[in-house]
Amino acid sequence: MSAEREPPPRTPPRRSRRQELWPPPLRAGRGERASRAELRAGRQERATRTELRALRLRSPRQELADSTAHGEVYLRRLRRAQLQLSLLALVAFGAVFGVMPVALYLLPQLHGAHLLGVPVAVWILIVPMPPVFIAIGWLYARRADALDAAFRELVEK
Amino acid sequence: MIALAAIGAVTLGTLGLGAWGVRFVRTTSDLLVASRAVTAWWNAAAISGEYLSAASFLGIAGLELQLGASALWQSLGFTAGYLALLLFVAAPLRRFGSYTIPDFVEARLNRSWIRPLASAIVILISGFYLVPQLKAAGLALQVVTAAPYWVGVAAVAAIVTINVAIGGMRGITYVQAVQFWIKVFAISVPACVLLIHFGGLPGRAALFGDQLPRAPHTLVVRLPAATRAQFPQTATIEIGGRDLTVAGGTVRTLPARVPIVIGRGTVVPVAEGTTPQTGATWSRAVGGTSESSPVLVYSLLIATFLGTMGLPHILVRFYTNPDGHAARHTTVRVLSLLGLFYTFPAVYGALGRVLTPQLYLTGQADSVVLELPRAAWPGTVGTLLGALTAAGAFAAFLSTSSGLLVSLAGTISHDVWPRLRRERQAGMSVRRLRFRVAAIVAMVAPALLALVARSIDIAILVGWAFAIAASTFCPMFLLGIWWTGLSARGAAAGMVAGATIATASIFTGLTLGGGQATIIGALLAQPALVSVPIAFVVMVGVSLRDRESVRGSDAMLALHAPEGLGLRLAEDDLDVPAEVAPRRM
Question: Within 13 Å, how many C-alpha atoms sit on residue B212's CB side?
């Protein structure tokens, strides 16, 4: 394991999928510490060497475990991303199934038209709906796992 | 007799397997380590097994017979409820590690006074859900053995209570999973055999055309009680040997326990209160009659979609998933297993309309799954298939009632009792004794209610349990998991508001009599469309006004951070009361 833990090449800076999802927080909301970028820029000249090193060494995991402001930002991003995904899936569900009662109410010809002797409206409810639920659920679970994996990668870095 | 034997075999088999399983688990495996061995498919089958109740097995087909294709919304809603659970609740709840709903409420909101309120709502929902199970038991035994209605109610209440009190069949994953496949087998095989036997659906005109249901052959009906019957068309029937011709559109009182002969091809009279429908209206999924108005359909869909996540006996099952990731994937599998099961009840409703139209007169639409095989195929095959559906129905209400009674008795013995006695800790033997006494006490009220609620459709009774769950625990979970600002007072106010409005409108609707013709009547019958938004608004409003310091961010780490990062509490730190812990093999 240790042999694989070589430091990654410095250049060129690789912009991974994880960084797209989780760019490092520039400034924490109610942060007690200034961010690394600000310290480097020399805006806070009183920052000592040790402080800089301490900042560099603090991993997202420590930030989260100590529930610092940084950690809260990481976690809030994860929660927001997950909630957006869930709401997106909910919208998809509403667009396919949620509109169905109104659609069948407003289009009575779906009840009049028969396929193999059974009204089309009944076919629509029996045949495609459960697979639609499963498909939405399956796609959602995959994407939610991917978000979790990206977060895990960030923390274990 | 064959049916009775099949029921006995299912009952004894489950009890025996449960008792054996408990001993096996106690001697061979450690609870938490062993849970890793349960695959997602087994877990999903176990959740589905606990979920598929009398409402799914008998109720949907009965409601379809009674109301028409609008009953399909019910089965779709029962399935879709797991999608809502998957999207918003499954993984965070598993990660939080709370075992019961009161545990979650207390830990998330960080106040101990809110726990009794959550316990009270658990008792309310479980009680409401137990009533239709017992009602179905009474009906099933009546159909199979011609015993009086109360015998079945008392028998199943006693079996389930003894079973839970002794500790058999307590949520063991494999037993519940096997129960699921028994139910699928018992509902799918007769349905397929009958469809093949008839070469599709017979009597299409009464199903989708302009016909009213007619007697398929000479029917002899004995009514359990004198019934006011409505004659949609002029018909000649024979009552106690004398012919009686009744003009169409009139209402006659038919005597009890006298053989009433309805000749072949005669339009069957319906009990007053049931709307006679032609095939075209019957097959309309929405807007056919007042019972399928869009408002009622949406209210029902909201109740089932959002109520599933608030069912106490289901959430306990999610604890057997090792982590949040597994919880998600188990739920996706539950969706597919339920989708498979729910294709079959609709077949019984449609075949029953053609082959057993006398159920419109007797008012026992809920028994169509049990009656249909014998009516459709007289002889040994029909008897065997009927025994199969009866056994499946018993599997359905044994497993669901046991799960409900475990959560009822667990809540009473763990939350209510110590509070009454004002003591802190009790020994294991005392707690176990309390659990047993609580199981017996908790069964009394639902059993009595089941005797009263005889005339109400199973599916409608279950719909109420879902409505209460959707207007109390659903907003609490959604806001508690995704919003840091939820305060304990806000959650309490919202749950009280939701529970009060839902319960009050259900009972108002009951006392006013079943008038679903107007929008108000529809909302009284299924209040979720009103009570759920009110519960949300009250919860958010009170939380926003609340001055109490809200510290939701600590809980957010436990709810949303993935496992395996060393950020969360070890599982062993959780205090799960041993009497109610699900056994994992």
Answer: 18
